[in-house]
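In response to reviewer comment 3 from the previous cycle, which asked for concrete evidence that the modeling workflow produces usable outputs, we include below a single protein chain processed end to end. The sequence was submitted unchanged, and the resulting structure tokens are shown without manual editing.
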Amino acid sequence: MKLAVLDWYTVNISGDIPTAQLEEFGDVRIIPLTKPEETAANIGDADIVLCNKVLITKEIMDSCPNIKYIGLFATGFNNVDVEYAAKKGIPVCNAGQYSTNSVAQQVFAYILDRFSRIRDYDTAVKNGEWERSPAFSYFPVPTSELSGKTLSIAGYGSIGRRVAEIGSAFGMNIVISTRTQPKDCPYEVTDLYTAAEKADVLTFHCPLTDKTAGMVNSELISHMKPSAMLINTSRGGVVNEADLAQALNRGRIAAAYLDVLEKEPMSPDTPLKSAKNCIITPHTAWAPLETRQRLVNIVCDNIRAWQKGSPQNKVN
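The workflow returned the following structure tokens.
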């Protein structure tokens, strides 16, 4: 079989994951990145197509009639016309729950950064402020304990549950907002506005849908405490960026930590780039080596299952 990987750099830009495990499936073509106008040519006569963000449309599938399987280096599958793929008998398989631990870890990296102010104190020490301190301990920047604070979580999938577990271990009060009543949930479950009102930290772990698009807006933020911080590691489109920037600049909330933006790579025009107390990381929560290796393993397992006649993680 022939296999085309259309955007390997999105998984392996640093070159730390070997391609050997992909080669067991046949003749492999590794394409670092694919522009829209290059998609059909890069697929060519491949039987198996693997990608992360490349658009696989009806037109692409019609132009590449040899496609028998589409695998995704991602949980999301909105870049593939899954309904048309189903009509053509092409299974589309995603990779779910590979990044649960790494995303939850990044959420708490953000929380600890805000509550312990490590960066601020490192800067103060290197600027000589501790050397000039009259006392042995120097703490002009307020810090806070996590214990007793309220962590509100929007979305209670695998990542939301893991964030709740870690928060609970820190002694935080956990509040959950989710579309459906979860079974055997040990935490308070309420609506989003109530969760926002109670939150010292409000973190989002929900998919991007018509209902969640722009849900972080001026109205929701108006329900939050001025001292609260907001975290988004889900999808950039969940946030109305203009509303959030305005709220930060006016001190309506204390801080925002974002790993995703509406446009990626980031547009230089995003109002969040210069917003006060807005920390932005370049979509790295899923990027630890172990996480990306797990992702590739899942993608390979999906292909093996399909070859045996029992596709797994099939989204269409």
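Residues 100-280 form a domain with the Rossmann fold fold (CATH 3.40.50.720). We consider this sufficient to address the reviewer's concern, and the full set will be provided in the supplementary archive.
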